[in-house]
Structure formats: C-alpha cells, structure tokens
Automatic annotation (TrEMBL):
Top-level taxonomy: Eukaryota, Viridiplantae, Streptophyta, Embryophyta, Tracheophyta
Keyword Transcription regulation: no
Record keywords, A-Z: Disulfide bond, Signal
Segment forming the signal sequence: 1-25
UniProt key word 4Fe-4S: no
Family annotation (Pfam families): Thaumatin (PF00314)
Protein name, as recorded: Thaumatin-like protein
PROSITE patterns: THAUMATIN_1, THAUMATIN_2
Length: 298
C-alpha cells in the first residue's frame, strides 16, 4: 500500500511539474501578412537554448506558434527572396543566416528588421523591442496577447520606399528595386554611426541624420544603439503576436493590434490563432485538480 501511495505521489508531482512548466511558458505567434512568402529566422541569446525551430518557410496568410521557456532571450526576423534546395541550403535576398533554412545559431545578415525579447522568470517582467539599428527589410509589429496595459511596438512604415539612395539595397523590380534599407553604420562603417570607439557610450553617440529618418517613420522602434528610452517595453504575457506586413495595403498605427489571418496547416511549429492566457491555462488547471483528487483517493 505504501509503495502504491509513493508511486501515486511521484506521478502526481511529475504531472504537476509538467503543468507548472506549461503554465509559465511563453509562445510567439508569427504571422505572415505579406503578399509573398517569408522565411522567419530565430536566434537565441547567450546562455539560452535555441527554439524548437530556428528557421522555416511561412506562406502568405499563414500563422505559426513557437514555444519558449521562461528566461529565454533572443530575436526573431523575416528573410525574403529565399531559395532553398532539398537539403535546406540556399540563399536569401535579405536577412540571410549562413545560407541555410534552419539558422542553427546564425544571426540575420543586415539589413533586417528584428523583434528582440528577454522573457522574465517567475514574476519578473519581459523586456522587448523592435530594432532597425541593423537596418530594415520589411515592416513588423509585435503585440502582447491576453494582457492589458502593455504596449505594441514595431515599424509598420515601408522604409524601403523612402530609403536614402546611399542606404538602399537594390535587387529586382519590387518597390523600385529596393529590397532593404541599410543602417548608416553598415553603409559607412564610421564610429559615430556605429556607436563604437570614442562614441561607444550614450553621451557621445547621438542620433544621426539617418537614424532620425528611421525614428520619424517608426517612433517606437530602436533607431540607434542608445535609443532605449522610447523603444524598450516591459510586459508579462503568455504569448506575443509578431506580424510581418501588418497591413500590406497601407499603414497602421503602431498601437493597433493586427488582425488574425486565416489559419492554415504548416509543417513547422503549431498552427494556431492567438488566444488569451486564461483560455490556454483552463484545461491544465482542471486536469491538475482531477489528478490531485485521484491521489487523495488512493
């Protein structure tokens, strides 16, 4: 009888641990609202594991959810104009990560619009931003889901259309041939633009003529290295909706929540519509009570 009780206790504790982990985990719902295919990439920061997928194809109108553990830190971006063979080798016009479908620890080649986040552990808040410090390729907006009082952020303006000639990445006929807009740091390599050398601190590194163009177009996005004050946000959410091309037919205010597109099957991740944390947690809560009662009965 004692042995059976011990087994029941061990089983209960294991299930409780699993549900505690699930209840405290986070996810990213990545949506492609562009009128063309994109290839999202993910990169974990130092000391945190890579996500279950580090790169995948996402057709227009598709939405994929990728889970992340508490404390995860990293970035998510979209690659465009990619071609890959059956082995996953290939190349992208923008945002390439070493010429592979799965980035596997490789970051985005600039210019690329980036969503960056550090998930809090326990009651600690999440810190997140959208950065165009390394340049811009396509618009995106990030919205915490299922919580109130948290800010959306992003860059919804098509910077490729107004990109200064000296920063333009030109390839093909789309948008006048401009597929991305480089940062002044990448274009000129000067310390004053890169916030390096004697400019490697907020006192000496100030917004440049070029970063000011980015900031006027996308006031909530990071435009240069020390742009923290107006560009870093905090929240505690169980899901973050990351939408590329939030409104492909026009501009959308940065605090507007993007519409949820039709959900289609996809071979990577879990395809879902965005849901609130309450809806997600309810079944786990009921099952945990059931298992606890079952333990007491034995």
């Amino acid at each position: 009888m004692v042995g059976k009780a011990n087994l029941n206790l061990v089983g209960f504790l294991l299930i409780a641990a699993l549900f505690f982990t699930a209840a405290n985990s986070c996810s990213f719902t990545i949506t492609n609202n562009c009128p063309y295919t994109i290839w999202p990439g993910t990169l974990a920061g130092a000391g945190t594991p890579q996500l279950s997928t580090t790169g995948f194809e996402l057709n227009s109108g598709e939405s994929v959810r990728v889970g992340a553990a508490p404390g995860w830190s990293g970035r998510i971006w979209a690659r465009t104009g990619c071609t890959f063979d059956k082995t996953g080798a290939g190349v992208c016009q923008t945002g390439d990560c070493g010429g592979r479908l799965e980035c596997n620890g490789m970051g985005a080649s600039p210019p690329a619009s980036l969503f960056e986040i550090t998930l809090g552990q326990g009651n600690d808040k999440d810190y997140y931003d959208v950065s165009i410090v390394d340049g811009y390729n396509i618009p995106l907006v990030a919205v915490p889901v299922g919580v109130s009082g948290c800010n959306a952020t992003g860059c919804v303006y098509d910077l490729n259309m107004g990109c200064p000639k000296e920063l333009q990445v030109v390839e093909g006929a789309e948008a006048g041939g401009v597929v991305a807009c480089r940062s002044a740091c990448e274009a000129f390599g000067l310390d004053q633009y890169c916030c390096s050398g004697e400019f490697a601190n907020p006192t000496t590194c100030k917004p440049s003529f070029y970063s000011a163009i980015f900031k006027r177009a996308c006031p909530r996005a990071y435009s240069y290295a020390f742009d923290d004050g107006s560009s870093t946000f905090t929240c505690k959410a169980s899901d973050y909706s990351i939408t590329f091309c939030p409104q492909s037919s026009g501009l959308r205010r940065s605090n507007d929540v993007p519409p949820v597109p039709p959900v289609r099957e996809h071979r990577y991740g879990e395809v879902v519509q965005a849901s609130s944390s309450t809806t997600t947690a309810f079944p786990a809560y009921i099952l945990l009570i059931y298992m606890f009662n079952l333990f007491l009965a034995n």
